Amino acid sequence: MEIGFLPIDNRPVCYTLPKLIAGMDKNINFHIPERKYLGDLIKTADIEKLFDWLENLENPDAIILSLDTIAYGGLIPSRRSNDTFDEIKSRIEKLKQILENKQAKVYAFSSIMRISNNNCNEEEKEYWSKWGKRIFDYSYQTHKLGCESCISNTIPSEILDDYIATRKRNFEINKIYLEWQKEGLFDCLIFSKDDCAEYGFNVQEAKFLEKEGATVKTGADEIPLSLLSRAIEGSLKICPIFAEPQQTHLISNYEDISVENSVKNQIELAGCEVADENVADLILYVNNFKNNQGEIVMKIGTQGFSKTFTLPQKPYMIADVRFANGADNNFIRELFKNDLTKENFYGYSGWNTTANTLGSLICAAKMKFFAKNFDKNNFLKLQMTRLLDDWAYQSNVRQTVRNTDLNILKKEMKNFENIVKNVLNIKTEIGYKFPWNRLFEVEIDFS
């Protein structure tokens, strides 16, 4: 199978993770642009090089597209770009022409511009450092009240005007994509809601698009992986089993739907179906939370796993979502008492948000289940990546390191590295990188 994959940007979860997952089936030829052409925290993608890459894809069976990458140069640039509507429209019309000349199934997604509830401009326009929280409150209250909030009077008019204009531009571009879907350009088109609250302009836009027939999903970075899963032929029957079955109605951090609905949505988006345990192909064990989702790095506590974990009788995978952006140390201790080297283990994930965890996990499990030429070594590298990133780094080492010194990081990771190698019975040399020169993400490097 020939698959073309255009990521959001060059982060490990967007670039190396899809390569690891696709690499579990040696019968898949996975085509991805050179990493240097993709955007990062401060650089936009080289859009012309990406157009060249797309045009030169020979006879792909499927193309997975991050539309933000072509339109704006990436997910973060979609919030920062000052390009006009006409400039962006011209770009995406060129994309349409390329896609119409391919005989591939096209699986695409575009983001509904988020509204982060903080005064941090690391991934936003400069003025977010002073006015971000105020803009969020203005958006939230205006939607909730049904009329413009007086908070607008406390934000400089030139800043508010620029923010509203950027939103309107992106929203109009999304409307064009929806028309193209109705024309049959896309086999699947997803609009993503990232970092959602109950109210806000982004929520209003999502409701409008849904009313017009669009498919909107909570999440962002994992959606290309869910679309990759959808491109793999075959439908898995998946039975979710929750560690806290009475608490599945609770809502995760950064999301606007319950854990139960997040699980259901991610299974269906991946081209799979929810099933009872007796007919399921795979068990999805969800380590969900009792009262609220914790987050170690943000000092948000929650009650950890306090039961005995017994391996399911059927093939299984594990979504560890008790904490956002990291593993539950209590659960990992229980998990490591079991033998994870058996063939019925289909993967672990505790990456960032609940949607991130589920989308990446289900994609990898489906890839393994239907692999025509399974590569166990890539599967083990994938599990090592998730355990070293989600557990060792995010839930432990990140709490002690204070800068991006790789020598200190390697020293702090060594003991965890040895534990994971022993648990997975794998011997390989690895290194570490801070690809965006910040502590938020680490890259497990097998090169």
Task: Characterize this entry briefly.
The chain is α/β, with parallel strands linked by helices. Helix content is 40%, strand content 14%.
Notable characteristics:
single chain; 5-stranded parallel β-sheet; globular; 14% strand; 447 residues; alpha/beta; 6-stranded parallel β-sheet
Task: Explain how this protein is built.
By secondary structure, the chain is of the alpha/beta class. It has 2 domains: 2-229, no CATH class; 235-445, no CATH class. The chain is built from 14 helices and 13 strands. The strands form 3 sheets. Strands 2-1-3-4-5-6 form a 6-stranded parallel β-sheet, sandwiched between helices. A 5-stranded parallel β-sheet has the order 8-7-9-10-11. Strands 12-13 form a two-stranded antiparallel sheet. α9 (223-231) runs parallel beside α12 and α10 runs parallel beside α12. The longest helix has 27 residues, at 157-183. The chain is globular and about 60 Å long.
Q: Strand order within the widest sheet?
A: 2-1-3-4-5-6
Main β-sheet: number of strands, strand sense, barrel status?
6 strands, parallel
How many independent structural domains? 2
Query: What share of residues is helical?
Result: 40-55%
Gyration radius, rounded? 21 Å
Contiguous runs where pLDDT drops below 50 for at least 5 residues: none
How far is the first residue's CA from the last residue's CA?
25 Å
Q: Count every beta strand, where a strand is a DSSP E run of 2 or more residues.
A: 13
| Anisotropy-based shape | globular
Secondary-structure element series: EHEHEHHHEHHEHEHEHEEEHEHHHEE
Figure out the total of helices. Answer: 14
Portion of residues in beta strands equals 5-15%
Overall average residue pLDDT: 95
